Amino acid sequence: MFDFLFSPAPGIIVGVIFLLLIALIYAKSVYKNAGPDEALVITGKKSTKTVIDGATTEQSGQRVVHGQGVFITPFFQKAFKISLRSRAIEITAVAQDKNGITLTVEAVAIVKVGDDPAAIRAAAQRFLGQDKNIDNFAQEVLSGSLRSSIGATDVMTIIQKRDELGTSVLATARESLANQGLDVDSFEIKGITDENDYIRDIGRAEQAKVRRQAEVAEHQANREAQEAAISAEQAVAEAQNTLALRKAALQLDTDKAAAEAAAAKPLAEAKAQQAIVQEQELTAQRRANLRKAELDSEVNAVADADAYRVKVAAAAAAEAAVTAANADRDSRVATAEAIRAEGQANADAILARGTAEAEATRLGAEALAQQSEAFLQLRMVEMLPQIAHELAAPMGNIDQLTVISTDGASQLSKNVASGFAEVDSVLSSTMGVGIKELLSGLVGGAATGAAAGAALRSTGSSTSGLHVSADEYELAAPEELDNELAAPLAT
Prior knowledge:
By secondary structure, the chain is of the alpha+beta class. The protein is built from ten helices and ten strands.
């Protein structure tokens, strides 16, 4: 195997394959083929001149290939493709006919590049790579030819002989198109219109004539149809009359036979009815007796059952009423007993609360009456410091004081003492109580107030009576009063 790989054979095979690839690529580049709707124009060859009968003609060096393949010389020749497909071109031309009537004609033309080599070369020279220009050029040429043909004829000819108008347009435009390498396969007129309704007015007379003929024919057909209908109705009426007469004759015979049969039938029915009535009388008598016995049995049984049911229901109702009455009586007795006990308890509570409140009110009143004088004395004692302060106020406002007296500075305290003596005389003259009496009665009032407060606290009531505490009756000690009186004097 390795010998084969290192032998010249693989190199030869690869070389052959490489050459084949190069050959294929080269063949593809030099071989050109045209489709069924295409033509190849090959350039690069020199044109040739030919002299015939003294006339020189030059043959183009362009080669046209249609529907087949061809090899070209690289670097010296080029191949160009041009489409041979047909194309529909819409044409609209507005022109006046020979009578001056303005018409709008719409048409469609099928245009393509010609099949002969000369036409293909001409089209390639003018439209190669510009297929859209073929449509524009053909449309302009055909539109001009159509306007020219319209001006040479009249409206009726155009309407009645459209193919002649198409032939005239092609005859005018074909030469111009052939010079460009184009050919027209067909040219058809699609429609003819005008803005002034001239074409419609042309047909109005004919339309009126046809309409009139149609109306006459319609009336004639209606008349004939009505006559035929009348004849048919007459024939039907005659047939119906004949049928009615025949029915009447048959009915007469039928009624006669029916009357005879009706006369014999009641007699037979009366006899048969008598026998039936007799049998019915016997049947009715037996049914009455049977029904009477059934009723007697049913009434007696029902009456006995109702009497027993009423008796049992009355006994049960009486027992239920007695039981309900006893239960109601017991309930009422228990309710009355509970209400009485509740009322007694409420009365006892109200009595106890009233007694306590009355006792508390009485004790409070006694304590208040006993201590009213002490209250007044207390208020008067509480005002003594303020009185002393007011007496010493004039002297307190003096920045420098010079005392001219044989007693010296002690004269100031004497003046204050004389002020208190005047206050004491004023109180004695107005209220009957002096400062000495107030201070002496202060101690006794405090003891009495404490006793009264203890008595009030022992009652334990604070609902509606007066709550008097012993603290409210405590008075300041005499030492505290002396200090309060001495403070203004020291100032």
